[in-house]
């Protein structure tokens, strides 16, 4: 499944010294890093996805690669699917958070062998539909998808054309939501906020005013700490139920998030490749860094430095022996 089907964390520009607060992901597949695929050089190029959890991964990996292993690190922001092309071509060396792209994996890992798995990240991702907990407590039956049409009028907005609004984030995310609305016979309209950051802003505004909303959202995500949300139960996910994206009528799966490396880098990337293969942390750890970046507005490297200082016992195990 793709991150959103991705399954789906805060959009922003590439993780550099500039603060990443989350905006829509740009398609920068033609932007090649000067460090990517540089034979023998102690340089690494990391793909930065447009949600804050992925940015947190990159921020910590970049900090440790630079300060502990002596590498120069470049980052390039690329949308989910184009990132696989860039990785295959050596324009980036690694993707640190993939939510599941079986078609791309078959093409580049199985068939072309230009990409190699880099192991699990240690975080399990899940996409779903969520309502604010304050509304679910008032209307407990809203958490069953079969009752959503009963509440369509509550979720209606000026943008939803007389139907209930199902709010999505960036149009670049691969989601099943339009098909789900159609195939489940729901009186709803999918409305894109434009980016994860815009979606977060809208959710916060709804919550401030205690208004009801129905939103595509995902875990892990730091926003749950600020706006408690309750998941709506969709038809249970079964293996293969989402293979045909036009006919899908089931919930999103729970997806162990994985890392992928350019094949040449995986085999010849030295300490950097070894480190990235060992990089594995928990949902809580990722959320800690994400919260610093997106909510406390720390620059990614400042957030990474703070986390590294407080978690040496964890990251020491990632360093090559």
Keywords:
321 residues, alpha/beta, 11 helices
Protein model, in words:
- It is a single chain.
- The chain has helices spanning 52-67, 80-89, 102-111, 133-138, 177-183, 196-208, 263-268, 270-278, 283-294, 300-310, 312-315; strands at 43-48, 72-77, 94-98, 115-132, 164-168, 188-192, 214-219, 229-232, 254-262.
- It has 321 residues and is α/β, with parallel strands linked by helices.
- Strands 1, 2, 3, 4, 5, 6, 7, 8 and 9 form a 9-stranded mixed β-sheet that branches.
- Helix 9 packs antiparallel against helix 10.
- The relative contact order is 0.21.
- The model is unreliable at 1-35 (pLDDT under 50).
Oligomer: single chain
Largest sheet: 9 strands, mixed
Number of H/I helices: 11
Fraction in beta strands: 15-25%
Model regions low in confidence, pLDDT < 50 over at least 5 residues: 1-35
Q: What is the helix content?
A: 25-40%
Give the C-alpha Rg.
20 Å
What distance lies between the first and last C-alpha atoms, to the nearest angstrom? 35 Å
Structural class assignment: alpha/beta
Element string (H = helix, E = strand): EHEHEHEHEHEHEEEHHHHH
Q: Report the strand count.
A: 9
What is the arithmetic mean of pLDDT? 88
**Shape label:** globular
How are the SSEs placed, and which strands pair?
Blueprint: E1 43-48, H1 52-67, E2 72-77, H2 80-89, E3 94-98, H3 102-111, E4 115-132, H4 133-138, E5 164-168, H5 177-183, E6 188-192, H6 196-208, E7 214-219, E8 229-232, E9 254-262, H7 263-268, H8 270-278, H9 283-294, H10 300-310, H11 312-315
Parallel strand pairs: 1-2, 1-3, 5-6, 5-7
Antiparallel strand pairs: 3-9, 4-7, 4-8, 4-9
Helix pairs in contact: 1-9, 1-10, 9-10
């Amino acid at each position: 499944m793709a991150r959103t089907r991705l399954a789906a964390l805060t959009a922003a520009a590439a993780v550099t010294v500039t603060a990443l607060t989350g905006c829509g992901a740009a398609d920068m597949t033609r932007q090649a890093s000067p460090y990517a695929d540089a034979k023998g050089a102690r340089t690494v190029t990391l793909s930065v996805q447009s949600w804050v959890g992925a940015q947190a991964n990159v921020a910590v990996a970049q900090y440790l690669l630079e300060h502990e292993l002596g590498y120069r690190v470049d980052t390039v922001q690329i949308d989910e699917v184009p990132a696989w092309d860039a990785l295959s071509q050596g324009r980036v060396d690694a993707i640190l958070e993939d939510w599941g792209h079986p078609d791309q994996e078959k093409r580049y890992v199985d068939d072309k062998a230009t990409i190699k798995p880099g192991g699990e990240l240690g975080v399990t991702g899940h996409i779903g539909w969520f309502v604010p907990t304050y509304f679910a407590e008032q209307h407990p039956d809203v958490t069953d998808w079969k009752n959503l049409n009963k509440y369509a009028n509550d979720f209606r907005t000026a943008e939803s054309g007389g139907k209930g609004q199902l709010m999505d984030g960036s149009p670049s995310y691969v989601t099943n939501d339009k098909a789900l609305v159609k195939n489940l016979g729901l009186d709803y309209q999918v409305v894109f906020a434009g980016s994860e950051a815009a979606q977060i802003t809208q959710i916060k505004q709804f919550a401030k005013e205690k208004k009801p909303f129905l939103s595509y959202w995902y875990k892990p995500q730091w926003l749950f700490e600020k706006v408690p949300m309750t998941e709506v139960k969709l038809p249970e996910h079964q293996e293969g139920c989402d293979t045909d994206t036009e006919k899908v009528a089931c919930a999103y799966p729970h997806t162990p998030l994985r890392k992928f490396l350019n094949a040449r880098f995986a085999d010849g990337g030295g300490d950097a490749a070894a480190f990235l293969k060992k990089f594995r942390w928990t949902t809580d750890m990722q959320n800690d860094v994400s919260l610093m970046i997106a909510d406390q507005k720390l620059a990614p490297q400042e957030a990474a430095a703070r986390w590294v200082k407080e978690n040496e016992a964890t990251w020491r195990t990632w360093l090559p022996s």
